[in-house]
Amino acid sequence: MRTQVAIIGAGPAGLLLSHLLAQGGVESVVLETRSEEYVAARIRAGILEHSSVELLEAAGLGGRIRTEGDHHRGIYLQWPGERHHLDFVDLAGRSVWVYGQTEVQKDLIAARKADDQEVHYEVSDVSLHDVTSDRPFVTFTDSSGATQRLDCAVIAGCDGSFGPSRHAVPAAQKFEKVYPYSWFGILADVAPSTDELIYAWHPNGFALHSMRSATVSRLYLQVPNGTDPASWSDDRIWDELATRLGHGQNGWKLNPGPITDKSVLPMRSYVQTPMRHGNLYLAGDAAHIVPPTGAKGLNLAIADVALLSKALIASLVDRNQSLADRYSDDAQRRVWRCTHFSWWMTTMLHTSGDPFDAELQLSQLRWVATSRAGATGLAENYAGLPIGY
Ligand code: RFL
Ligand code: PHB
């Protein structure tokens, strides 16, 4: 088999890259270890930044975001006794959309199918070869058990944090921070109890009220690392969410409902640089991971791919290497901004048990929620900087 760009991974980064490349006249083949059904059903992120929505719309992928997504002007920040609304439109002239990653993934799968894109699902033994030569190739075992070789001009490593691509960059510099807590996430068949997301600091730990639609809520609790989701009954989950989210304060009520999914997500920050080695380019979680508190993971993957697709089209169609040569540096600028913002939101909102830390967090929350300067910094980062930042 031969193609111009071998894309490893059919998550949002890989499928969006193949879509944008096709629009620029570059062909690709996508390899994915999981099944199409598994990839389409994974429950992950829920918030799209302003620039992500603009990019998806410009790529012809915005139809369902407008009809089924939910436009949010901002978020609520709260701590015991106080809830403050931050209006991003007013503060930063930008907003966000609630539109689940599962829906983005379904839109991408449908668009690639409509284009007859070659995607090989359920492959195994994916290996990258000769990435610094001008004839790199990928070998893999296809779903029928046959060994295959895919020759290409460029390999795009979009295979997330557990894929092989990041390990094919020798001497990469790696930065990592592991947090001493995890998120316990639930999905529930109940109307959200709030019009916009609530990020809550509480002495028992952080809680977040998010949503997926008018009838589906998504909520999270800070829990110790290693927590077994089965060790929490549904009643205990709703009781703890009610406590941390302030049920009963100023007449606000949290409506419980049937829980349809429970999972525990460990939190870490990870950045690997450079994001290019010869003819191998990394994008999305393959190069960096952020804790979910800033809602940045999916948006950062989209922003990488916006830069990478332009760079590869310039290189493969116009024979102009300048964007490809700058790709890693350009992408890293935004990666570090989002890495800092995600770390900042995480450390401001998650409790450590240390009373000194708690007072600093509350002081910072009061400043962010009540000073226009403080609130604008949060709004600008949360609603997202322009793609070319
Ligand atoms: P993905 O989505 O992980 O896609 C990578 C794809 O590569 C495949 N793969 C391979 N394919 C071929 N060969 C191999 N050897 C391969 N190894 C792996 C995988 O099966 C997968 O299909 O990365 P991508 O495209 O870079 O997209 C990034 C986003 O998915 C990610 O940043 C966010 O979902 C992160 N994230 C969250 N972000 C948020 O902003 N808010 C959240 O609530 C949130 N929840 C989450 C998350 C990530 C999670 N993961 C990765 C554990 C919840 C979870 C559980
Ligand atoms: C979600 O809806 O899953 C979600 C929303 C905001 C976050 C993280 C996750 O910061």
From TrEMBL:
Residues 2-342 form the FAD-binding domain. Keywords: FAD, Flavoprotein. SUPFAM superfamilies: FAD-linked reductases, C-terminal domain, FAD/NAD(P)-binding domain. Pfam families: FAD_binding_3 (PF01494). The keyword Plastid does not apply. One of its GO terms (molecular function) is FAD binding. This is 4-hydroxybenzoate 3-monooxygenase. The lineage of its organism: Bacteria, Bacillati, Actinomycetota, Actinomycetes, Micromonosporales.
